[in-house]
Amino acid sequence: MVIASNFLCSGPYHWVSVFARKSHQRLLSYIVGWLEILGWIAGTAGTALFVTSLFLGIIALFRSDYTLRVGHIIGGCISTTFIASIANQAIHAFGMLEGLMMIFNVSGFVVFVTVLLALGPRTDLYDTFFDFQDAQGWGSQGLATLVGISSPVVTLIGADSTSHMAEETRDARKIVPRAMFISIAFSYVFGFVMTIIVMVVSRGYNEDLASKTGNAGIAIIYNATGSYAATEALIIILFLLLFWGLINQVMASSRVVWAFARDGGLPCHNWLSKVLMD
Hints:
Strand content: under 5%
Low-confidence stretches: 1-7
Distance between the termini: 22 Å
Number of domains: 1
Number of helices: 12
Order of helices and strands: HHHHHHHHHHHH
Structural class: mainly alpha
Largest sheet: none
């Protein structure tokens, strides 16, 4: 297996090959390559779950007789991932759309901040930053923190996604690091600010509504706005942003699989490298 690829699409397993001892290069790169692929596939499935939960949550918000079912969630995850995969094949103006989505992202952030701070309740400053709770009964605040952080940590992979598109980027040596920095600057700062705001306005939301919709975020937004229409509008903004993120994750995941297949790390690698490249 040729591990020492000169392309950046391969990501971590390439750098393991570069820095590992020669006697361990092949084995360590192979292990990291599989972990990388499985991680990207799992992360993509996680984003599909977020998108599906928002879509089904909107239905549950407006349909009092609707009950969330596991089959609906699984079907929704498969459907959204399939649509994202088709979009990767059908959409050719990704550069322009990425720019438009960035503007939409910033605009959506401003809308969320304005609406939630203007209409939402206020949580005491001490409770916001220093009141730690184990609401799900994990038995330990530390364990509850680790479990809870497993979902939002997915949002920190934007910079890594950028690196996997290096082979399709002009002047990648300059553009890719710049894109990674911009991704970090926007996503991490916006994410931190939004987290604080949600914590501030989350006091007193309807837990029955959160259970019914399967999403506490919907209940928090409704608690802040007191309007089904406003809640729907904000959730649709979030849905579109997450769905575009799913499209990007499918794109980056396919590049990782292609790179590893090209280096001979996957079963049927000759076929996979050709199909994904075409």
